[in-house]
């Protein structure tokens, strides 16, 4: 059976001392669900977080990486650098990377390949903008984001891929996709996978929802059959709220 996962994407928040404070309160929380729990601090705090959470069941993941192994790419971070500080999983394709840093499907396909070559797990993000939703083009947009970045892979690669549907209009806006909208899209994503790779692969891939998930709405969203967890932004910055979401299964 596929796993339930709750991952906190801290984005560009928390310096070292704020990270220490949040890690300390995360370690005090009680988990009552069976979800896999992950947090994604900024690059400079990955090693510190890895050390602090070593004895816990919280995995430390990265928010991004470059596709090259090493070389003249000033300011970038490679897969092997991430692995050297204990990171085994990377978020790729977040809409903020696509929108503000011009990350294209073509670039993301290269990052996906680099992560898999380095035996890393990927949380691959995608999602439509408000205009796509209003124009009833959201399924086409999502299908093309998935196909362009992932459909060159073989079926076995999907053991190391988690998908995260994050409608851009619901990120940081307080506006959540309704549980029905999330379920409809997740079912569509699973069908898109099944059409290409077969039902076994489609049923085995965890699909997370992201966009204004909070303690108050998590339970209803997670109760939908094709929603396997959440990628959490703002609410992941408070340990109590984050664990209320982790325990919403
Ligand atoms: P919010 O939960 O703040 O809407 O952010 C969602 C997100 O972008 C997680 O990657």
**SSE arrangement, N to C:** EHEHEHEHHEHHEHHEHEH
Identify low-pLDDT runs: none
Q: What is the end-to-end distance?
A: 15 Å
Assembly state = single chain
Q: What proportion of the residues is helical, as a percent range?
A: 40-55%
Strand content: 5-15%
Please state the average pLDDT score. 97
Distinctive features:
11 helices, alpha/beta, binds 1,3-dihydroxyacetonephosphate, 249 residues, 41% helix, 8 strands, 8-stranded parallel beta sheet
List strands and helices in order, with pairings.
Layout: E1 5-9, H1 16-27, E2 36-40, H2 46-52, E3 58-60, H3 79-84, E4 89-92, H4 95-100, H5 105-117, E5 121-126, H6 130-134, H7 138-150, E6 161-165, H8 179-197, H9 199-204, E7 207-210, H10 215-222, E8 229-232, H11 239-246
Parallel strand pairs: 1-2, 1-8, 2-3, 4-5, 5-6, 6-7, 7-8
The protein binds 1,3-dihydroxyacetonephosphate (13P).
